[in-house]
Amino acid sequence: MRFVDEYRDGKFASFYAESIRSLVTKPWSIMEICGGQTHSIVKYGIETLLPDEITLVHGPGCPVCVTPLEMIDRAIAIAERSEVLFTSFGDMLRVPGTQSDLLTVKANGGSVRIVYSPLDALRLAREHPEKEVVFFAVGFETTAPANAMAVIEAHRTGIRNFSVLCSQVLVPPAVEAILGTPSHNIRGLLAAGHVCTVMGFNEYLPIASRYQIPIVVTGFEPVDILQGIFMTVKQLEEGRAVVENQYSRVVRPDGNIPARELLNEVFEVTDRTWRGIGEIPQSGLRLRKKFADFDAERRFQVDAIRSVESPDCIAGAVLCGLKRPYECPAFGSKCTPEHPLGAPMVSSEGSCAAYFQYGRSGHEKVA
Amino acid sequence: MCLAVPGKVVEIDRSISPVMGKVDFGGVRKDVCLDWVPDVHLGDYVIVHVGFAISTLDENEAKETLRLIGEIEWDDGREESEFRKE
Amino acid sequence: MEGAAMKRSPDAPANAPVDFTCPVPLSNYERILLAHGSGGTLTHRLIREVFAAAFRNDYLELQHDGAILPLDKGLWAFSTDSYVVRPIIFPGGTIGDLAVNGTVNDLAMCGAKPRYLSASFILEEGLEISELCAVVESMRRAALASGITIVTGDTKVVDRGKGDKMFITTSGIGIIPEGIVIDPRSAKPGDQILVSGTIADHGIAVMSVREGLEFETAIRSDTAPLNSLAEQILNVSSNIHVLRDPTRGGLATTLNEIAQQSNIGLFVRESSIPVDPAVASACEILGFDPLFVANEGKMVAFVGAEDADRVLAAMRNHPLGQHAAVIGEVTAEHPAEVVMESSIGGKRILGMLSGEQLPRIC
Predict the structure, then answer these.
(1) Domains of chain C, with CATH numbers?
(2) Which residues on B lie below 8 Å from A143 (Cβ)?
(3) In a shared domain, residues A52 and A108
């Protein structure tokens, strides 16, 4: 595939790996907050190509993993209602709630359907006027405009049997929350390429300056990631801390203006709880009052659910990069993809699932 | 979640709202919403996420990324050709 | 045979197998009814006019409770499999092709020559008879291509909504020629790992129908009988230690199974695994890893290093093995684990498929 294969080329990858090796003089910890990058790093074994001085830390880049437990329980309660046709991206189906998960609701006869696009959910609402179609709107800024489009279209074409359960999150506040914790040792950041495709990267300029951290907007293919790491290490070695754009073939400084306008028309910023981390102020999106009718939380008054996390799950520490998945006592034993205790073991972009599937102990460089 | 794949625009229908088109991903064709890339032309490459094109691919920038590999010089005078395993 | 229209192709020799034409309407019914499974007249008509008419042979003509078979002395392999794929007809084949080829292949992977097959059908009330006939016709052709004879079977009907159109279970026996020993526990360090062609074709062909993916050239299931390919390579080498066909769970799962059964380590190079470019693109779009997607006409062979070139050449000489490749080797290190070198040279553990990647793919 064009514009993909070149960025998976072994020679280019080796070139950057070697370049990093020649450049580095001190240990550096570099974080990425993007499930797609986590997945790529583990799948291609990128860490095994890097010198020991570089540590890659996987941040809370998987929106499935950070969806609050209460929201999962709410989704399950709504999906269990007989008049509801509940739609969601595939990964959400196996995320454990307090007592159950959406897949179990499906197995017990509930109408739960996987969709690949929010417009598919809207189409289902048109095709099934007898059902209340609910779409689980989970995602970062990359997905928010698409979710906004579904709401706008529903509003414009008068579709009444459609609503969204909104659990959208924003990356920069999470970056600030992590960089603001005293115990972190993050020295550089790879910014998520597709989030920045929509939002641009201007909002990272004050962050780079305030925390004196180089931030490189990076793509997803192995050569992109290696080049992004190279650019970060170069800044670190030279004592600079600015925002650079490795993914320049796709990302523009202002992002995608029509998409951002749509996002702002439908959503407004709100406080949000991130599972495993806690509440981060102004870190989420909710529907504006104009579109309040499409809010599934209002439409379905679900009873207060007492949400309880598994005591063995250390997802919070893993999501902030403070612990590696294999450092969790339950990893691979009590907690596996077949019976996950927490979200990072479920999502294909979750740190725990990625290590379980692809990695041995990450600190062991497979020779 | 960030899954977004580059593909080539092979059809554009501007007569409807939102603007839709067909994108070819290495032999697989899908319907894609092109509303957010208003300057797109047939033959352009776009990045598609959950059925929406979120950006066009700038071919010059793409070449630039790969060209930069040839530009790095080393303090000890090693040439970049030593790293290219041709 | 009343009811069935039997046609011989005009240019076929006198003793050539006849084409089977579907007897629609079957007693004025276009769809399967519960009565077709009750054992009465409708059942008998169904068996006679659809199944026995298509699978025409002396065993079925007898309509005995069981087939009495003349079995040669020696070791026989016995295998069974059930098929629940949805949709039942997809590019490149039907559930019938999978049912015949699947069991033929399991026997072939034991080193056996497939001989006799049973076929049990669970039909959903409301299934169109014309669809049933299409499946049965594909089974007739698949049996002919592999040389296996369908000698006995069963039919039941379940209520509408309880059967996803059709489930098929086939069981088969085949004779293992003297001297052939294939055992999953006999892989040794140094053995080369060969795969007979491109992976993930079947799973993606089925998923593409379900997801409504459009292709420039339609991706077709690779369902095929592997017995003649297996025979060809067993003829050129007595150092073939393991044969396996990677179906559900894909190539990765099969490699892990063998690694565990033989307690040996495997080292595999991702860039040497053949994948059709359109299949690779479809996997990208759908977010699947081709290594975990089902195949229905491919085999993996573990061959002693000294014979690897010869076996590879024999595979490539066969219509089903044209894209065969060496993808790795057996090592004494990291026993029971599969290590993969990615296309950029990094390394990772290749695990088994965990959880459900693709529902009802075979």
Answers:
(1) 15-176 (3.30.1330.10), 184-349 (3.90.650.10)
(2) 1, 49-50
(3) no
